[in-house]
From TrEMBL, chains A, B:
PROSITE patterns: HTH_LACI_1, HTH_LACI_2. One of its GO terms (molecular function) is DNA-binding transcription factor activity. Signal peptide: none annotated. Gene3D superfamilies: 3.40.50.2300, lambda repressor-like DNA-binding domains. Keywords: DNA-binding, Transcription, Transcription regulation. The keyword Ribosomal protein does not apply. The keyword Amino-acid biosynthesis does not apply. It comes from the Bacteria. This is PurR family transcriptional regulator. SUPFAM superfamilies: lambda repressor-like DNA-binding domains, Periplasmic binding protein-like I. Residues 3-57 form the HTH lacI-type domain. PANTHER family: HTH-TYPE TRANSCRIPTIONAL REGULATOR EBGR, LACI-RELATED TRANSCRIPTIONAL REPRESSOR.
DNA sequence: CTGAAAGCGCTAACAA
DNA sequence: TTGTTAGCGCTTTCAG
């Protein structure tokens, strides 16, 4: 049986309200009494029961985070940002992994709500309006994070994908590449962010004015998909004298480079390849991957910051927060004359 | 204002105890009344307040997990295991990242306790007896996970490091390597698991009987450390005709291979290199890394399973649970005649 | 089978 | 400045 406020009160010879006052600093308490209470607390090793506290204050100091899978390094980075700034404001994180299942997302949202979390961050990889509606019904601060699909009307934080893609293509062009292949995936999905990225790419190609672009559609965004598209892509490269491939995700790029490695095509000597995301592996891999940095840590940090602002009734900027991007110029793309 | 048990009771025309009984199935309730209550619950969209529930039942259904950094992929895997089996038993995970600071670990432990978590898993990378003592004082189920250092007398789950290292060395020997360098780090630390790994390596070398072993001590376990030891290691390799390097961690191996890549030494053609851990990158990297698989997911899963067993007063096996290992035979080590 | 009432540990009026 | 008291939303005796 753990020690409660009553025990402290008894030992200090005061009422429980007084004890409450000193631990919360909510009302003036005479120096003498405060000292006695503090002593009693110390002697008993008393720690307030946060559950009881939550019940009366209606503040759990908990923020629910629903993710697809912490095994994805970009999600781990986001969670890192979320946790770290949450911590600064004394919020704890309750983590739930949905593994992409919408029903699970919904169930977890309800579960979190019944645990009285004060806000929810949903990191999803599909588009799931129903869950979003459900969470919005809770009327607690909510941020939706999705690196693949957009969902208008829901607070979110991301990069400007059009601009990012435009800049990367410009960079490639600047390196002397004239024929650049953009590999996308699932671009037919209404809400896919690929739309913007393709547009950015096309705009840069168009601005350059020398060549038309090349588009290839992979089956997905994973390393395997990157590897599997290898044969098609290399064929395309050879037929059209393409010198650079801009992959819509790092994983795709890594998979493609792996395919090249296995088939004795040298990157970047024979072919320049860049990615998008700057996931952890991008800088570890050899050749180091040239890529667009999506600041995952910051995205998480800003997301929870927004929730906390809302909780504190601070002024909120617009619903969609855009974070700055950077082109990470590394080894996988070389300059050609 | 959210709907409470009172609202349900009123709408259903029964007492709150009856409502409680139907939601908990704790006592018989007549079919008719049950139906009415269920209807009311449904109509109001009632969800029990878990905080209030926790207060009276003293069960928070929360398990606290203190980690160093979710950015480490092996930790992400452990957390994945923890979360996934926790979920099966209806436990939620509260995550706290200490970034290796012992004071922070301790503070979080106390914080978690005051949030009434029912158990704690501490994933640490240093040895911190004080924190362990503190947590043990809580008298709640506790598991300590540390891939670098051992702490006797505290429940933990790991692999048998001696055996793992022995097996890997055997495998290298079997590939025809006679001169194998083992690169360690921090082996002088009393509690370091390196002791066991070095012993396993030495035993295999001794059993083989042909050559003495070679030991090199890096400055740490990271990719940078692996890269930085490159010069020394390659010198050692050349001077002694070493053909294989067994690194005590995957990161060290990756760093070393990166060094080789940058210095035009081919792996495995010129030198075989293997790691230890089988972190995510090991199978993505090219060449694919030959390594010892430490089953991080399972370690997390078994750890929380143990906590839940304890919570349910099920029988507990011994304090130290050993999980089976596997040698992942991949590309970075080749057979030599 | 059902309801009234006590109480989990704490905060926050309200009095004094 | 301090104590008394009424809850927060729920579970759980104890009567009936």
């Amino acid at each position: 049986m753990s020690v409660t406020i009553k025990d402290v009160a008894k030992l200090a010879g005061v009422s429980i309200s007084t004890v409450s006052r000193v631990i919360n600093n909510s009302k003036p308490v005479s120096l003498e009494v405060r000292r006695k209470v503090l002593e009693a607390i110390d002697e008993l090793g008393y720690k307030p029961n946060e559950v009881a506290r939550s019940l009366v204050t209606r503040k759990s100091n908990l923020i629910g985070v629903i993710i697809t899978d912490i095994g994805n390094s970009y999600i781990a980075q986001m969670v890192r940002g979320i946790e770290e700034v949450g911590r600064m404001y004394k919020y704890d994180i309750v983590l739930s992994s949905s593994y992409g299942n919408p029903d699970t997302e919904k169930k977890f949202a309800q579960l979190l709500r019944s645990k009285q979390v004060e806000g929810i961050i949903l990191v999803s990889e599909k588009n799931n309006d129903e869950v979003i509606k459900e969470i919005e019904d809770f009327r607690i601060p909510f941020v939706y994070l999705n690196k693949y699909y957009s969902n208008l009307n829901t607070p979110t934080v991301s990069i400007d994908n059009f601009e990012a893609s435009f800049k990367m293509t410009k960079y490639l062009l600047g390196l002397g590449h004239e024929k650049i292949l953009y590999t996308t995936a699932q671009e037919e999905n209404e809400a896919s962010l690929e739309k913007f990225k393709i547009d950015g790419y096309k705009k840069a190609i168009r601005d350059n004015g020398k060549n038309k672009g090349f588009l290839y559609s992979a089956n997905g965004f994973g390393i395997d998909d990157g590897y599997n598209m290898g044969e098609d892509v290399i064929k395309l490269v050879k037929e059209n004298n393409i010198t650079a491939v801009f992959c819509c995700q790092d994983e795709l790029a890594i998979g493609l480079i792996n395919y090249c490695y296995d088939n004795h095509i040298k990157v970047p000597e024979d072919l320049s390849i860049c990615g998008y995301g700057d996931t952890k592996i991008a800088s570890i891999y050899r050749p180091k991957l040239t890529t667009v940095k999506e600041p995952y840590y910051d995205i998480g940090a800003v997301a929870i910051r927004r929730i906390i602002k809302k909780l504190k009734d601070e002024e909120i900027e617009e619903d969609h927060i855009y974070l700055p991007i950077r082109i990470m110029k590394r080894e996988s793309c070389r300059r050609i004359k």
